[in-house]
Amino acid sequence: MPEALNLSLIVYGLGIFIALLAALLIKGIVGLLSWTDRAAAAPGAGMAKPAPAPTPAQAQAQAQAVAADVPPHHLVVIAACAHAMVGAHRILHIGSNAGAAGWSAEGRFAQHGSHHPSTHH
User: Fold this and answer.
1) Start-to-end CA span in the chain (Å)
2) What separation in angstroms does the CA of 13 have from each of 3, 35, 37, 47, 109?
3) Is the pLDDT of residue 43 over 70?
4) How much is the pTM?
5) How far is 113 from 96, CA to CA, in rounded Å?
6) Which pLDDT score, from 0 to 100, does residue 28 have?
7) Over 90: is that where the pLDDT of 38 sits?
8) How far apart, in whole angstroms, are the C-alpha atoms of residue 8 and residue 96?
């Protein structure tokens, strides 16, 4: 066999060996990290099933329960602060940020919309 062909086969074989070794190392690191995450999440217990997403009626009931938990004097202070900062506006919601996903989706929409080339010259 010519010497150049022999050398190229050795180099390719060494490259394949190094790539497989790196892949096994990465697989081991990923396995170790997932194992430590499971151990930290539930020590002694197995993986818990994720809770199902609440229906809109359940989400509204939760929002009303949160609003019911806010003391009335806190609501007055929040309304007064909002009036002092932005003027006479209607407060739509006081409570947990359960609907925050809409704001992040709107932000992504605005960001993606800024990437479209303009049609005017």
Assistant:
1) 65
2) 15, 33, 36, 42, 48
3) no
4) 0.34
5) 29
6) 93
7) no
8) 64
